[in-house]
UniProtKB/TrEMBL annotation:
Pfam families, alphabetized: MiaE
Protein name (database record): tRNA-(Ms[2]io[6]A)-hydroxylase
TM spans (from-to): none
UniProt xrefs under PANTHER family: TRNA 2-(METHYLSULFANYL)-N(6)-ISOPENTENYLADENOSINE(37) HYDROXYLASE, TRNA-(MS[2]IO[6]A)-HYDROXYLASE
Length: 193
């Protein structure tokens, strides 16, 4: 369903398990950034009532996920560390069309968002299957389902509003670009790292 070209090496889970506190902190900030991204899309495209309605719900879900991760952090006696830069997301951002018309920029932002959700979904699935920590296994399974829904929301709006754009072609270009980017990741205890 996600169409990703390169799967995460399962050995990444061993790296994650070596520093659970770090992955949880990174994950918490990823959820905060996802909520902020949804709000940004709303701000830039507020004339689309259905998009605003659905992305408000999505942003609230992302904030709930942020709170859920923070609750796990507190429960385990950890502290939420400082916000992390997400190099993977910054690399993907380079693909986005920043000089096109408003519609092209919207479609690219939606596809960019769908890609991040797709990769997060793929990573959460791997964690749910491979991590030894049963609480986190169930937690990541539940989040995987949510991320798949977010992926569908973003790509659905890109297709709906990108009527004069070959959205599927642009999506394939992003899949190809992401396959190149992700080759450099999977080596640190971060969601996209």
């Amino acid at each position: 369903m996600l169409g990703l070209k390169l799967a995460t090496d399962p050995r990444w889970v061993n790296i994650v398990e070596s520093n659970i506190e770090e992955i949880l902190t990174d994950h918490a900030w990823c959820e905060q950034k996802a909520a902020t991204n949804a709000i940004t899309i709303i701000t830039l495209n507020s004339e689309h009532t259905d998009l605003v309605t659905d992305l408000l719900i999505l942003a609230q879900e992302e904030l709930e996920h942020f709170q859920m991760v923070h609750d796990i952090i507190k429960k385990r006696g950890y502290k939420l560390g400082r916000e992390r830069k997400d190099s993977y997301v910054n690399e993907l951002y380079k693909f986005m069309n920043k000089g096109g018309n408003r519609l092209q920029c919207m479609v690219d932002r939606l596809l960019f968002s769908a890609m991040i959700e797709a990769r997060s979904c793929e990573r959460f699935k791997l964690l749910s299957k491979e991590i030894k920590d049963q609480e986190l296994s169930k937690f990541y399974h539940d989040l995987m389902i949510s991320e798949a829904g977010h992926y569908t929301t973003f790509i659905g709006f890109a297709r709906k509003y990108g009527k004069n754009i070959d959205v599927d072609k642009r999506w394939q270009e992003l899949i190809d670009f992401e396959a190149e980017v992700i080759q450099n990741y999977g080596k640190s205890e971060t969601i996209h790292g």
